[in-house]
Design brief:
GmrSD_N; alpha+beta; DUF5655; 6-stranded antiparallel beta sheet; 4 domains; 6-stranded mixed beta sheet
Length: about 700
């Protein structure tokens, strides 16, 4: 390696060509970085005391990569952002000089011949800077004064235009501006391919521009060590098409997500999103039997599945319809599992009908859990390891069994639980309410209704000041009915006449133009036949729609014999099952006390589950928040939270941090009678809320 400090303009002078290799990211400096460079140049231009301004390093391989030509070709490893930005500034300065008509120290022709072109050469060798595929033609056309290509690079053009306008609006003396540019200093670092490791040098450089994304680092790692011919083949066959499918990586976070999911599929471990590159390197080093081309081809194959999943690009309309539904639920955590299923489908391990059934099963699992309020923070691990539970000879059946055998916070809510929660849920403020109503409206319907053009209608109005007619129909307890059922499924429908329906009495809403009787929607059919709208009708409609929901989001159906077969196959032996009868101290008054307290705890939320352990009873969402140890004349409770965070107004809690006790947590207190339950719930709620926040 040779490194020397040098003047940037002198570095660019002479016959030479800077080539940005195909594995480098596209030009990515924004107006913000350009403005910073512009301000620095103006400052040093106007201050004669400043003799130089350092702008970073330019690292390149000097020889051995390309065939010998009349122009030395330098492969730029680091520094393309600075080189490209200065090229755009010099172009803008040349334009300003030409338009000014002034006689200056520098001319447009000299700027071109010294810094931008190799004036004695032709074709591509004429240009001093050759960018990557997506930026190349835009810069060449700007240098030649031609119109922009049809698919031009917005960043190249916008930054060039920024410099043109900055020169014009600042009114800066053009000689001074050129002097400012002449003060720019870089470290010129040339590498010897035979002795230096460009990849290690590239990783260790501290860029003064934009941080490299995980995608940039992975691309460089894959392609940098290859010979130019291999680079070009791999880039054009796999990497460039992949970048285009991700929108040319204008948002590299999506590619980072894909690589995390890809590595999860391949390794069974979920990498940290900020450490995808290091995880990828470890994975590659482990694949000693595969060469780079095989690995890149595999990444490309899975990227096609990811794009179909994320952007609904599947050509098969039936499959694409399910993918749209899954993405509406925003369950990206299922992608590692779905990528593997997609691969099995493409390799014809599963049929199209089974593939769709599997997708629908995932959709039902996620949606039922959302309705039942089950915490989502365990889903990433559930889906990351789900494929290990599948017998690929009995793909669909084994997946159904895997879901059915999950319990506690990983469970697939049963029809009973799903229906119970759906009819009482505040659907109006539910994130997936439009999805819910769309699916109910369009179930088994060939002429699909686009509900995005409809609005949510409360059949019983939201206005708390209900009219006489509404109060009469709802009955003497109308306020309680309004409070209880307003936002629930039974009281919600769809309309395009929301403002016209407003707070009108039910019969007017039913019979007016555009009213329920005049609606083409199935959701409104039952309303057309009703004479009144009250608590009874709301509950009937809720039950009807909930029964329909059971058909839309189906629960897996397997016989007990088949389920028992998969239970036996499970690698982990079933743990001992305990019941309330296994606690001899829970009898008489203590049993009454426990039953009352446990009921209050379970009523905190539908996600709360009670589990009987060997010597205590646990109450959990995704993990324990309170445990109860039955004793002779009282219940001992452990709250799973730091002692210094509990608000204990009565001072009954004890700090048991680092003391070996049954149960989980650092806070302990006792309950001896039903009269103490109210204050106990005040303490328990604090632990419950803390765990909900952590989720």
């Amino acid at each position: 390696m040779k490194a020397v400090e040098t003047n940037l303009l002198k570095f660019m002078q002479g016959t030479k060509q800077f080539i940005i290799p195909i594995y480098q990211r596209k030009y990515s400096w924004t107006i913000k970085q350009c403005r910073q460079l512009w301000n620095d140049i103006v400052r040093v231009a106007e201050d004669e005391k400043i003799r130089g301004h350092f702008v970073g390093s330019i690292v390149y391989i000097e020889q051995g990569l390309y065939q010998v030509s009349s122009v030395p070709q330098l492969l730029v490893i680091d520094g393309q952002q600075r080189l490209t930005t200065l090229t755009l500034l010099l172009l803008a300065l040349g334009k300003a000089i030409e338009e000014s008509g002034q006689t200056l120290d520098i001319t447009k022709k000299k700027i071109m011949n010294y810094y931008l072109v190799n004036s004695e050469e032709e074709g591509e060798l004429y240009h001093k800077l050759i960018l990557t595929e997506s930026d190349k033609d835009t810069l060449i056309n700007l240098v030649l004064g031609k119109e922009l290509p049809e698919e031009y690079s917005p960043r190249i053009y916008e930054n060039y235009h920024f410099f043109v306008e900055s020169i014009k609006n600042s009114g800066i003396d053009l000689n001074k501006l050129y002097q400012g540019i002449s003060k720019l200093i870089v470290v010129d670092i040339s590498l010897d391919r035979d002795h230096d490791n460009p990849q290690l040098i590239f990783e260790s450089l501290n860029s003064t521009g934009l941080d490299l994304s995980q995608a940039d680092l992975i691309r460089n790692f894959v392609l940098m060590k290859l010979e130019p011919k291999e680079q070009a083949e791999l880039y054009k066959e796999y990497w460039y098409p992949m970048e285009k499918s991700f929108g040319n990586l204008t948002n590299s976070s999506l590619f980072d997500r894909f690589m995390r999911d890809y590595l999860t599929v391949k390794t069974g471990r979920i990498p940290n999103i900020r450490e995808v590159y290091s995880s990828f390197k470890s994975y590659v080093f482990e694949q000693s039997e595969q060469d780079v081309q095989q690995i890149v081809a595999d990444i490309y194959r899975y990227s096609q599945y990811f794009v179909k999943l994320a952007f609904q690009k599947e050509k098969d309309k039936e499959i694409n319809e399910v993918l749209t539904d899954i993405n509406t639920l925003k369950v990206d955590v299922s992608y590692p599992f779905l990528l593997e299923v997609y691969d099995d489908y493409e390799r014809q391990i599963i049929s199209k009908s089974d593939f769709i059934e599997i997708l629908r099963l995932v959709e039902a699992y996620v949606f039922r859990r959302a309705v039942c309020g089950i915490p989502t923070n365990s889903l990433n691990k559930t889906f990351a390891t789900l494929s290990k539970e599948i017998d690929k000879a009995n793909y669909l059946e084994s997946l159904q069994a895997a879901f059915l055998l999950k319990d506690s916070y990983k469970r697939f809510p049963t029809d009973e639980e799903f229906k119970r929660e759906l009819v009482i849920k505040d659907v109006y403020n539910f994130r997936n309410r439009n999805y819910l109503l769309r699916k109910l409206e369009n179930f088994n319907r060939k002429e699909i209704i686009d509900i995005e053009s409809y609005t949510i209608e409360h059949i019983m109005p939201q206005n708390p000041n209900l009219s006489y007619e509404w109060r009469r129909d709802l009955g003497p307890n109308w306020e309680e009915v309004h409070k209880t059922y307003l936002h629930t499924l039974g009281n919600l429908t769809l309309t395009r006449y929301n403002s016209e329906l407003s707070d009108r009495p039910f019969k007017e809403k039913r019979d007016m133009e555009g009213g329920f009787a005049d609606s083409p929607l199935r959701l409104n059919r039952g309303l057309a036949r009703l004479e009144t709208w009250n608590e009874e009708e709301i509950c009937k409609r809720a039950q009807f729609l909930a029964d329909l929901a059971l058909k839309v989001w189906k629960y897996p159906q397997l016989s007990d014999d088949i389920l028992a077969k998969y239970r036996k196959k499970s690698s982990k032996s079933e743990s001992v099952t305990y019941t309330i009868a296994d606690y001899p101290k829970l009898q008489g008054d203590m049993l009454v006390l426990f039953n009352e307290l446990s009921k209050r705890i379970c009523n905190l939320d539908s996600s709360v589950r009670m589990e009987f352990k060997k010597r205590y009873i646990a109450f959990k969402t995704s993990t324990n928040f309170v445990d109860i140890v039955p004793q002779e004349s009282r219940l001992r409770l452990s709250l799973n939270m730091p002692f210094d965070e509990i608000q204990d107004l009565k001072g009954i809690c004890r700090d048991v941090t680092n003391i070996g006790r049954l149960g989980n947590g650092d806070v302990e207190f006792h309950v001896s009678s039903v009269s103490e339950i109210e204050y106990a719930m005040f303490l328990i709620k604090q632990s419950y809320e803390k765990h909900r926040e952590d989720e």
